[in-house]
Amino acid sequence: PGGAAAPPLPEEDCMKLNPSFVGIALSSLLAIDLWASKRLGVCAGEGSAWGSARPLMKVIEVSGHGIPWVLGTFYGLCQSDSSAAREVLLNLLFALLLDLVMVAVVKGLVKRPRPTHNKMDMFVTISVDKYSFPSGHATRAALVCRFLLRHLVLAVPLRVLVVLWALIVSISRVMLGRHNMTDVLFGLLLGYALYSVVEHCWLSPATTPALFALW
User: Fold this and answer.
1) Residue 126, pLDDT score
2) Is 137 a catalytic residue?
3) Could you read off the pLDDT of 82-115 as tens digits, one per residue?
4) Which residues cross the membrane (predicted)?
């Protein structure tokens, strides 16, 4: 009949017609993130605005890569003849391995693709490295920065250099087009938090004598 009321819309259709404020805000932030990240990817290719700086950015990329850090720390641990130095290096190695595992797990769960303008010429990648969130370099930079500042006696200029290195490594991820800004920001927060986990689980001769017996 002409006067009959229309049947109510299914709940899911109502949600599509009336998206939540949170959904709109998240979509807007994501769009801004993608737009700004692409604009800041000035070294994403040789033909980019700052393409001539790309080789330098790739050197910075290697400086924050996990493999050189893990191998270098392991070598130092094997060569050290100081019990105090071995304790610090063993915990740095633990921190680096924890970082690699956590970043791989989060990347595998989130599965956010790399930015479309990224050139896939990264140094030594594995399967989960095709995903973007979070930035493992930013996570490692924040973790290593906190670790070094806490456990090494450094002069003020060196402390400043450590912080600058962490910031430059993180910024370079967006400039190279490897990551979006939110990947880097979350990576920095994750690395900062992982250091607290390392401190809480600190390995020492008293807590893990078997590990120290190996060295």
Assistant:
1) 78
2) yes
3) 899 999 999 999 999 999 999 999 999 999 999 9
4) 89-110, 152-172, 184-203
Distance CA 188, CA 27 (A): 22
Distance, first Cα to last Cα, the chain: 88
CA distance 184 to 45: 19
65, 117, 137, 151: the catalytic one is 137
Q: Check if 151 is active-site.
A: no
Structural domains of the chain, ranges and CATH numbers in brackets: 21-213 (1.20.144)
Confidence of residue 16 (pLDDT cuts 50, 70, 90): low
What is the mean predicted confidence (pLDDT) over 44-72? 93
From the candidates 65, 117, 151, 179, which is the catalytic residue?
179
Q: Are 101 and 185 in contact (CB under 8 A)?
A: no
Write the DSSP string, 123-170. Answer: SS--GGGGB-SS-HHHHHHHHHHHHHHHHS---HHHHHHHHHHHHHHH
**Cβ(163)–Cβ(145) below 8 Å:** yes
